[in-house]
Every structure is written in structure tokens, then in C-alpha cells.
Amino acid sequence: MSIEVLALVAVIPIVLALVLMVGLRWPATKAMPVAWLACALGAILAWQLPVGYVAALTIQGFITAIGILIIVFGAILILYTLQHSGGMETIQHGMQNISRDRRVQAIIIGYLFAAFIEGAAGFGTPAALAAPLLLSLGFPPLAAAVICLVFNSFPVTFGAVGTPVVLGLKFLKGLVEAAVGANIPGLNFANMDQFNMVIGQWATLMHVGMIFILPVFMLGFITRYFGPKRSWVDGFKAWKFCLFAAVAFTIPYMAFAWLVGPEFPSLIGGLVGLGVVVAGAKAGFCVPKESWDFGPSANWDPEWTGEIKGSDTCEFKCHMSQFRAWLPYVLIGLILVITRIPELGLKGFLAAQKLSFDGILGYESVGASIAYLYLPGTIPFVLVALLTVLLHGMKGSEVKTAWTQSIAKMKNPTIALFAAVALVSIFRGSGIADAALNPNGYPSMPLAMAQAVAGLVGSAWPMFASYVGGLGAFITGSNTVSDLLFAEFQWGMASTLNLPHQIIVAAQAVGGAMGNMICIHNIVAVCAVVGLSGKEGTILRRTVWPFLLYGVVVGIVATLLSYVFVPHLF
After folding, report:
1. pTM score of the predicted model
2. How far apart are the C-alpha atoms of 176 and 445, rounded to whole Å?
């Protein structure tokens, strides 16, 4: 079977999911099981994988989904715990003292606070934490979800203490070492660590344009589609504050990427930027003269809300000090940093505590595990939720209500994620190098799609390389996994077309980051925490536009670097 036909079969589940969710507005709870079925049939009929093997991959997906659901549950539990303890209302009061302008709040929480959490934890954690915080401040749930999904892009290449680069590119080690040994021009790397650092450096140059463009664009987007006047201009009026935030983030972000390595750019950029911008906002620096709001919730489009309705409450009470109210989030940040930096000793121990499932249904190559202590859902989310009971002096009835509500919210995301992650598992396992399981030796479904696209665009590849990374993140829900899937393919494309390897691989790493805007896992998770389960297609229709814009900007930079600048450096 030709690569074009294989690619067509592979894309059917994706197109089906998009048509059902975006076109027909099916909830993910219905659309994703149908997409999984289409994927399973394609694997059995076209790839000729054994039925038992496909079933094993499906179970593998279910087990992986449990880990994602633990993160979702922990994020929801933090939200409801703070709501019932009075901490959230205290935070709302404090944020209004910084600025009542929703545009300013969106930048502080969605752009900078989320970037810090991404740098520390990754795995969809930022949107799951930041979106409920925006919701509690009076943002329409749909707006809160879109803001946090879109802004959870530029930090992701260096998320989870650099995991997408350090772990995601590990399969390139042999190729990099061979290239160094062969003295290939332009590949002057002493080792894999140096190669990773160079990838991070070039990735920042591809991200930096959107780091400045995205906040301005998104504020205009939000005021256009959620504002009382439906005007782009209302958002653009905050351009000075957006640029202030971008500079505050970019300087430490670029400095750490170029001078230290890929582990800390987003974490330090978010932390430093957050401190600088909050201080600046309090002082009125670059803050728009006229405050902007979404208007009365009675006038909101019903599509903007779900299970959690908006509130017109303009004044909030302080139930405790701002320090006590923010302490759970401070603890979350500290614990994430402590448990994610290998040198501090806890990461290895926590990651080793696993529930392992090997040889599922007798297939040795199919296994899964749940690192139950390393998942952000348990440590720090559930742990901090329990500590908050003591820190905020909660009553037993308040704790019970918070847990009951959190558990009740898990039904819809459980159904959607089980199907979505099972689909991902089949996608990834379809290219197994085992003649007994993959008798035709076909490439995996994602790789078949990528090879078909590569055959169409040829020397224009730098313009499209990031979209392949985005496709990987859309399918798998992870920049790291996207890099694991496609880094070798991107290296091969660079070799075939005589392009700078480091630029094409960096475009892959950037594409995997921008794909977080549209990946089904993240959308289902954020819908769960803001009460929008069933409206995944509605969100996807809005996040796809900034995704496409991001890819165009990155493609232009990658093309210029590939054909104009980098060739002259060597």
C-alpha cells in the first residue's frame, strides 16, 4: 500500500473527530469514541495489525489516561478547595487591587503565571490551574479556557524543566554522534547535551516573534469575540502592557536558553516576568487608562458558559491575608520545582514509585505505568489541597463539599480521555518493528502522514516543519511525545533536502509547543475544570486560528534561518 493511501487512512480518525466536534458540535464524550473506532479499524484493516494487539494498545491508552485524569482531578480539587475556604475570594480581592482590567489580569495569570507553571510541571498543568483562576475573577468560562490554551504554547518547548528537549530528542543521540564523527559541516557539537542546548537556542529565536505578537493578538481576539463592543481595538489598546510583559518574560527566557541550557528558560522567565509585571501593574506602568470588562453576565452569549455560570459580583471580601490565600499556589510552585530538578534528589525517588502493567494481553512490547507520586495531580495538587484544609482552617462540611463536587466533575473527561488516549496509543504503536505484528513493515500512522506531506512540499519544508510538530502534539497531547515521534523524521528531511539539521529539529520542538493550543487532551482537561464539558469543538474552533498564525510566523523564521542566515555561519 502506498504511503499516500496509508496517510489517507491515518488521517480519517482526525478528520472525523474534527467534523464531529467542530462541524456537528458533538461533545468529546461522543466524538472521541467514534474516532477511536475509526482508528482501530484502520489499524486492523489497512495496517493489518492483529486484533489482540490493537486491543492491548487500547488498554495501554486507558492506563495512560488514568494518569492524565489524576492531574485533572487535582486541578479541580484545588479550585473547589480554595472556593470553599474563602481563599479564592481573597485572591479575587487582591487581583482587583492590582488591576480591575480584565486584559491586565489575562496577561498576569494566563501569560506569565501559566508560563511559570509550565516551566515547572508541564503536562497540561498550566491551563488546568490558570483557567479556573481567571474564571473565578469573572471571566466567561470559554474566554478563560481559550486564553490559557493559547498562551500555553511558547513556554512548552522548555516545559517540565526542559523535558521536551532533553527527553524528547533522545532518539537523535546516535545520529548526532555519527554526524560529529563524520565532520558534517554545521554540526560542530561535542555531545548530545551541547546539541540540546543549540536546539533550545534556535527554538527561542523561532518563539520570540510570537512571544511579542501573541499577547496583543489574543487580547484583541478576546475583546472581539467576548467584549460588549465586539471590537479588536479594545484589546489592542493594551499593547504597551503586552510588550512590557513580553520583555519582562523574554529577557530571562532568552538568557537562560542561550547561557545555561533548556531546563529553566520558561520557569525562570515566568517567575521573573510575573514579579516584574505585577509590580509594574500595581504602579500603573503601561496599564491602559480605561479599564475594560466583559460586561454584565446577563448579556453574555449562552455559548460562553456551561455548568459554572458567570457572576456580576464586583466587590470581593478578604477572608484572610493575601499571603495565606496565595500560599497554596506558592506551595504548588515550590513543590513542582523541588520535585522536578534531578539534582535535588526527590525526582528520581518519586518517579520510581509506579504501578506497572507489563506485557498487556501477552504482548511484550505493550506496557504502561502510572507514576502515582510523580504526577502533578497527586504531588502537589492533592497534597496541597489537603494542606489547605489546615492552612485556611476549613470546616469538615466545606472539605466534604469540595471533594464531592470535584469527583462529580470527572465523568465527562473520563469518557473523552479514555477514548482519546486509546486512539493515541494505537497511532504510536502502529509502526512497531515486529514482522509478526506489523507484517508489511508500515511506518506508524503519524509518520505516514508526515511523509506524505513531506513529499508534497519538498524544499519548502522549513515553512511546514513546525506544523508536523503541532500535528504530533495534537494527536498525542504532548510536546515531548511529538518530539519522540518526529525528531528522527525531521532529521531525515534535513539530510535529504540539505537543510541545517539544528534548524529543522528546532522547528519540530517549537511546533510541538504550539500544538498544545489544539490538542484534544488539553482541551478536554480545561473544559472539565471550567465546566465546559461537551463544548470541546467550540474551543477548538477558536484556538485553531492562533495555532495557524503561530505556524506561519515560525515557518518564516525557520525558512530565513535555513536558507539565508545559518548557511553563512559555516
Report:
1. 0.79
2. 25
